[in-house]
């Protein structure tokens, strides 16, 4: 049964990498598909074995009518998803539009577009665009992901999926090594790092975050993982705990100008954000008020805005920003002084 499930998952993964609507020259061949889906063929010992395995899978998908060869007789063969919507069939497109509308209605009012894109990429929402027509990129500096042991990630995913404990070797930021038994609750990618929300040993609280790149070893346990009462991954993120904050919120008041003023008009800091124009003689364009979680992410965002933002309230955040910007300015003053001499 496990082998059958792995085969089904492998075929589904291949389908995700094969576009439905793309010119022949942009369609993938077996080699490029093997690179994208390498994780699903790691059990094949040699490159030639992996090549034979993916060829068998592709032949099965072709014979089942899931995909088609777009360049018969060509080398290498290229593949495209079969059964594209007929652009001249209004009934099919109306059905697709209804399906897409339902998906949008569940995501857009909550401002959670991240729920929508996976459905668009695989066609479940009605329209299938594929990675050749839809990509999502970060608006911050992109860093390479932290180095994670392959088996650690496999064990974490299995423990979560099966609801089992996880035995881990863990080295914290100070270099201290421990061997806790973790009770996984949820997994979060925050920027280039992966974190596991888990209870530790016999604790019922607090909910802790474990960086996967700090796990030195792991093993899926035999016991069922203890569930934290009331745990909800989205609620944890909304409260700011994903940024190592507690449940503290505060009323933020700031002045903004330039691109930040435009950004906050389009993308509010919170659902209750209020924005007003500044007086004509002000150095800023707008004043913004919002109830937000007290997180390091907020501080980093404010600092990243530079002179386009001035924090007015709370005073504690204003003092932190003043201290951080003064320290940064001092670094550059030292460099400027050295350059002058």
Which series of helices and strands comes N to C?
HHHEEHHHEEEEEEHEHEEHEH
Count the domains. Answer: 3
Low-confidence stretches: none
Protein structure class: alpha+beta
**What is the name of the CATH class of the largest domain?**
Alpha Beta
Mean pLDDT: 85
Query: Might you state the CATH topology name of the largest domain?
Result: Alpha-Beta Plaits
What is the general shape? globular
Count of helix runs: 10
Assembly level? single chain
Report the strand count.
12
Report strand %: 15-25%
Helical residue percent?
Answer: 25-40%
Rg, Å, rounded? 25 Å
Characterize the main sheet.
6 strands, antiparallel
Q: Report how far the terminal alpha carbons are from each other.
A: 75 Å
Name given to the CATH architecture of the largest domain: 2-Layer Sandwich
């Amino acid at each position: 049964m496990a082998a059958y499930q792995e085969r089904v998952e492998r075929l589904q993964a291949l389908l995700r990498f094969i576009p439905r609507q793309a010119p022949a020259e942009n369609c993938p061949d077996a080699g490029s598909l093997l690179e994208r889906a390498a994780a699903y063929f790691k059990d094949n010992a040699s490159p030639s074995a992996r090549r034979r395995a993916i060829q068998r899978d592709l032949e099965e998908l072709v014979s089942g009518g899931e995909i088609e060869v777009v360049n018969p007789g060509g080398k290498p063969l290229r593949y495209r998803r079969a059964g594209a919507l007929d652009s001249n069939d209004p009934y099919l497109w109306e059905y697709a539009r209804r399906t897409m509308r339902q998906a949008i209605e569940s995501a857009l009012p909550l401002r959670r577009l991240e729920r929508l894109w996976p459905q668009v990429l695989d066609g479940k929402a009605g329209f299938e665009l594929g990675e050749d027509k839809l990509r999502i990129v970060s608006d911050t500096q992109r860093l390479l992901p932290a180095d994670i042991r392959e088996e650690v990630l496999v064990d974490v995913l299995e423990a979560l999926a099966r609801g089992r404990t996880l035995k881990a070797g863990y080295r914290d930021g100070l270099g201290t090594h421990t061997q806790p038994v973790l009770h996984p609750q949820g997994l979060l990618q925050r920027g280039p790092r992966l974190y596991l929300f888990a209870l530790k040993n016999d604790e019922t609280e607090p909910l802790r975050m474990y960086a996967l790149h700090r796990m030195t070893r792991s093993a899926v346990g035999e016991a069922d993982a203890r569930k934290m009462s009331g745990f909800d991954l989205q609620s944890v993120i909304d409260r700011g705990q994903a940024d190592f904050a507690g449940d503290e919120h505060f009323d933020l008041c700031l002045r903004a100008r330039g691109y930040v003023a435009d950004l906050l008009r389009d993308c509010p800091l919170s659902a209750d954000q209020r924005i007003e124009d500044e007086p004509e003689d002000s150095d800023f364009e707008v004043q913004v008020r919002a109830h937000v979680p007290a997180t390091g992410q907020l501080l980093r965002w404010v600092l990243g805005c530079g002179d386009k933002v001035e924090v007015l309230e709370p005073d504690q955040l204003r003092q932190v920003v003043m201290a951080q910007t003064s320290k940064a300015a001092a670094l550059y003053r030292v460099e400027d002084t050295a350059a002058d001499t």
